[in-house]
Amino acid sequence: MVFRLKHLVLIFLVTLVAGCSTLPRGAAVDTEILKEADSPEAGFAVYPVTRGFLPSLKEWPRVEGRRYNWIGHSHGTQTTTIQAGDIIDLRIWDSEENSLLTSTGQPASDLNGNVVSSNGTIFLPYVGKVKVSGRTSDSARSAIQRSLEAISPSAQVQLTVKPGRGSSIDLVGGVRQPGIFQMEGTNFSVLSLIAAGGGVQTTLENPQIRLVRGHDIYGTSIEVLFDNPKLDTRLRGGDKVIIEKDKRYFLSLGAAGSEALHPFTKSTVSAIDAMSIIGGVNDNRGDLQGILILREYPSSAVRPGIGGPSQKRVVFTIDLTSSDGLFSARNFPIQNKDLVLVTESPINNTRTILGLVGSAFGLVNAVTN
Predict the structure, then answer these.
(1) CATH at residue 202
(2) Residue 101's domain is classified under what CATH number?
(3) Which pLDDT tens digit goes with each residue over 21-68?
(4) Is the same domain home to 228 and 275?
(5) Pairing between strand 240-244 and 313-318?
(6) In sequence order, which residues have a C-beta less than 8 Å from that of residue 98 and are 6 or more positions away?
(7) What does the pLDDT look like over 336-366, one tens digit per residue?
(8) Boundary residue ending a domain (143, 162, 181)
């Protein structure tokens, strides 16, 4: 009876080992995914992330969608000049009797609300159009007073300029106080505008800047701008600035610390950064030698040689048990929509089988005793 029971247990163990690939687990073993890589119909290429591979990777196209250029910092004039759309208020003083510019008993006459036209002029009674755009307030006042000398040599001009729409910037969102802001001089920059809006909202993840100028859009991140003041772009009247969260993300699956969608927390996220963000590798299940990063390139990126991937679908493999793998992972950039897959350690199946074997022999011993 005991012999027969042990024989049945032996048959059970053989069957169990034969079917060990179907044991329940939360992720694939890396060999299961990579075994078809060498076949022509596989449709994907495999690249180990090593020190020797990283230089060629820098030549590959990126897959992060639209990339924006940015405008470096430049210096404007120290004085503010009048622009089209500005509003000029005039007060003209004239002590002469029977003056054409003032009323009887009134030493001064107000001419308010003069909008600088698109050609840079304002209209004055008895004088006509006077060019004021591109001039400072003092220069424009002198030009207007000279134009009045022909009809009233004693006239004195007082001038006030109110910035118009052409000297304003739209700060659309992403700050505490969005709105329309008047430029404070010709050196009014992006960081000055953000400060005027109360600063960036603290809830935004890796905030991005979009500058709309005419029909062009420029972009960078707050992080990059803070790190490099030479990129603090000087604004122009009519510019629109938008602050928004970084829309890029990557995914994590398998025996990772978490299976989720993760937004980019900074401008450049390395593979090591990504492992930290996802909570590392599950200590009981994950394979440190089997970190896979799956990425899909457009057809235009497929190139022979080292100038690009050999297939649209690419699997990058990382071995975190070697110094070369660790250092290389620090220099491997994660891109938008990448999938970080932590594969299951092959030893887990062995552990499961040994546990079942121990349980089975324990059962036999219990019955035979």
Answers:
(1) 3.10.560
(2) 3.30.1950.10
(3) 444 555 666 666 676 665 666 788 999 999 999 999 998 988 876 788
(4) no
(5) unpaired
(6) none
(7) 999 999 998 876 554 444 444 444 444 445 5
(8) 162
Cβ within 8 Å of residue 195, ≥6 positions away: none
Q: What is the per-residue pLDDT for 36?
A: 65
Q: Is there a contact between 225 and 191 (Cβ–Cβ < 8 Å)?
A: yes
* Domain count within the chain: 3
Q: Which domain holds residue 311?
A: 25-63+248-351
Render pLDDT for 302-345 as a digit per residue (tens, 0 to 9): 887 778 898 899 999 999 999 999 999 999 999 999 999 999 88
Whether the full predicted model's pTM is greater than 0.90, yes or no, is: no
